[in-house]
Amino acid sequence: xxxxxxxxxxxxxxxxxxxxxxxxxxxxxxxxxxxxxxxxxxxxxxxxxxxxxxxxxxxxxxxxxxxxxxxxxxxxxxxxxxxxxxxxxxxxxxxxxxxxxxxxxxxxxxxxxxxxxxxxxxxxxxxxxxxxxxxxxxxxxxxxxxxxxxxxxxxxxxxxxxxxxxxxxxxxxxxxxxxxxxxxxxxxxxxxxxxxxxxxx
Amino acid sequence: xxxxxxxxxxxxxxxxxxxxxxxxxxxxxxxxxxxxxxxxxxxxxxxxxxxxxxxxxxxxxxxxxxxxxxxxxxxxxxxxxxxxxxxxxxxxxxxxxxxxxxxxxxxxxxxxxxxxxxxxxxxxxxxxxxxxxxxxxxxxxxxxxxxxxxxxxxxxxxxxxxxxxxxxxxxxxxxxxxxxxxxxxxxxxxxxxxxxxxxxx
Lengths: 201, 201
Description:
alpha/beta; 2 domains
């Protein structure tokens, strides 16, 4: 085929595609707060939440972050967001379960973190709430899933929420508007590359 | 089982898990720049890149972003990162293929964007280079994959690169250190929810 013919065929295809896309955009009229869930075993669940957080703050939205497992303040992302905005950021975990080795302490930390989360889920002046690594609280039975889902459902109608963590329970996926499963294809760590500042924390 | 027995069993399991995790961390000694690829049809590929970008900047790293498809400056994330850092940010695309409907114009834009990317890939003072939506340049044949892989391989040894976009070619996945496939479980847009500022742009 000549280049002119290729160009013409491309243009024809793209005109048809544009009609389909434009119709889909026209059909998507609802405006409301959405519940995003980033789950799966791959890298990117929390990072994607923080990327949306940057986008939201750049659009003038207000936001709050509650971290359910991490117990160390001063990560790169927290430092950056605090420098650049008046974000509410709460590091409320006790660290990985294999570090604490204490089921009751982990559960108590999760309950306290949820109380903090509920403050924001009841506050219509907060446009986006990030609940980082929340799913582990359900996986390990630290929090009651039904009660948490009820709090999420009762939040202000325009408020967005992002939940991250492996193994999101089915009821949470059912309640969500957008769900991404981040699957591990390969990871540098498995090839012997250390976790490095800026990339992993 | 009594609560005490449960607690003891939990502690025992977690002690063994900690030993495994600690060994893995001890084995991962290599320190070098990594190539991350975020691909798949789900939401989160670019967001995750921008989340790592926030983390990197928070750790004092320097960074540059080249966007290969987007043609509109002033997105939420660009606004936020510009406000908060001295980041280099280049919006160099011509928009979606079905908007331009012009194959040659799309290809020329991609070649120009790659020339900009190469400047950073040759500059050891840039710690992280984000090549957003680069994969489409290979999918549509705008760029030569082998030449691009050679440029990536020749970059400074401590420089990190993140490539995003659907349908990453196998040779790029082979060259990468960490690859996440972001799979679409569900998306609010398909349920009729409009793209909203802060969430989608």
